[in-house]
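User: New here, any thoughts?
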Amino acid sequence: MNWDIETQDKLKLMISKTPVFHRHITEEAVIKRAEENARSRKVPLVEESDVIAAFFTDVPSPFYSMMIRLLDQSGFDYKKYGFPRKSS
């Protein structure tokens, strides 16, 4: 699947800031989920919103604060997409 170049660059930056022992699994899981998100929207391009949704869906709660910090450091504007979402 094709990716928006800026989104792909931000993801690479974020992965590079992720602790070494988490990088591979994080990258695999986020890419898989982001591509699923794009396909479910029936679009041919993975965009920033797909990656952000992937992180908020798949990152375990013990790593939540680190994820938020790394999203901010990597230039992802998750608030623009309504994250973090309030639980009902």
About this structure: The first helix runs from residue 5 to 17.
